Amino acid sequence: MAQLIDVTLRDGGYVNGFDFSLEAAKHIVSGLQKAGVDWIEIGYRNGPAKGTAGLGMTAATNDDYIAALKEFAPLANLVVMLHPHNIQAEDLQSLKSLGVSLVRVCIRQDLLEEGLDTIRECTRIGLFTSANFVRITYFTSQEIKQLTLKAEAAGADIVYFADSNGHLVPDQVKSIASVLKSTLTIPVGFHAHNNLSMGLANTVAALECGVDWVDSSLRGMGRSGGNLATEVFAAYMERCFGAARYKLIELMDTAEYVQEEILLSEQYMTPMTKDILFGMMNFSTDLKQLIMDASLQHNVYWKELAYGLGTYPPDKITGEDIAFIASRIKRNNRELQHL
């Protein structure tokens, strides 16, 4: 049976600016632990990709926060994610000494060596480490093989592939999972996003290919279109396989706490129209922001602008490309007005 990581306190932080109180974090950790969730990700060390400025407690995941959770729930398997460019050697030593059970290193294709160096250092000091390949839809099949083998050689204990853009469908998940399972000798994990409401279907597809680790979050709370909801995954597993691995009542109680105390009462993690369109187009959240900014700057409809960029390779779109398409849309609109 695959291992489950709940990522509410980390990926969910993109919804509320990582502004979880310590009391809320303890409540969530306690509920997940009582429900039998295997691993609990508690935040980023020293910030998501762009750092900690203006963000709350789980964006920094400092020593005091980790120590408080370890004292509160000493048997919980706590997980911390990090971006290599935000980390110093002493951060890794602190994570080791504080008893963090798993460190997940974000691996970007353009920053591969930096990520591999961090994995080597984690391995050297004895940290259980996952190499998390983000934006997997920007990798070719050959690149997936070659780069994940490098992560294994660097000492990673797990290799994850993340559908960061929420673009994959089950057949694609199966294709990537099969490549990784046949290429690597270490366990493989999958992180789904729910832009096209494929979080559960894609996770099930990964499990059918023998993936060893999967992610979810309470209420699906997460970046962009959100994640697979932990309570939905638990209910599905019980529905299909009978014996309850997780205590569903405790999970639902904790999910309701997140809904009522963390999310706004009317805020549900149904993908917004932006998330649906950008997931379909395979556009990253960084690119989404550039498009939204350009639509305001050039006074063009953001949906038209996104569609206008559809012929470009999504991982190669530049600010100049966006400005060019925006100008063309404006010109076309002016011509239509004069017809």
From TrEMBL:
The keyword Transferase applies. PROSITE patterns: PYR_CT. Signal peptide: none annotated. Pfam families: HMGL-like. InterPro entries: Aldolase_TIM, PYR_CT. The keyword Transferase applies. Keywords: Transferase. Residues 2-252 form the Pyruvate carboxyltransferase domain. GO terms for molecular function: transferase activity. This is Nucleoid-structuring protein H-NS. It comes from Paenibacillus woosongensis. The lineage of its organism: Bacteria, Bacillati, Bacillota, Bacilli, Bacillales.
